[in-house]
Amino acid sequence: TVLRAFAAAEPAAPIVVSSVEHHSILATAGALERRGHRVLRLLARPDATLDFAPLADLARDDSPCLVSLG
Fold first, then answer.
1. 8 Å CB contact between 15 and 4
2. Angstrom distance (rounded) from CA 19 to CA 9
3. What CA–CA distance (Å, rounded) separates 29 from 7?
4. What is the pLDDT of residue 55?
5. pTM to 2 decimals?
6. Phi and psi dihedrals of 13, rounded to 5?
7. What is the spatial distance between Cα 53 and Cα 62, in angstroms, rounded to a whole number?
8. Phi and psi at residue 61, to the nearest 5°
9. For residue 64, what pLDDT is reported?
10. Which residues have C-beta within 8 Å of that of residue 12, sequence separation ≥ 6?
11. Within a 10 A sphere around the Cβ of 50, how many other Cβ atoms?
């Protein structure tokens, strides 16, 4: 998958997923996290929007990251 390929190419780079992703994305992200990759989950608010505040720290960094929002 794209998540696994990115994690292999950029092992230190974070992967960002939303808490409402398809199960296959969340399962892959969880497996990568258990292997030591940094995974950031954006939580859904009660009004069904995502809380993007955690991305602020990533925006200040020039290193790559993968964001999956589906």
1. no
2. 24
3. 10
4. 86
5. 0.86
6. -80, 140
7. 18
8. -100, 140
9. 84
10. 38, 63
11. 15
pLDDT exceeds cutoff 80 at 61: no
**DSSP result, 12-44:** TS-EEEETTS-HHHHHHHHHHHHTT--EEEEPB
Q: What is the C-alpha to C-alpha distance for residues 68 and 33, in angstroms, rounded to an integer?
A: 15
Give me 67's structure tokens: 């964001």
What is the rounded CA–CA span in Å between residue 9 and residue 52?
Answer: 25
**Residues 25, 2: Cα–Cα separation, whole Å:** 10
Token output for 54: 């955690």
Tens digit of pLDDT for each residue in 26-59?
999 999 999 999 999 999 999 989 999 888 877 7
Q: Running DSSP on this structure, what letter comes out for residue 45?
A: P
Q: Report d(CA 6, CA 4) in Å as an integer.
A: 5
State both tokens at 11: 């092992």
pLDDT for 27: 97
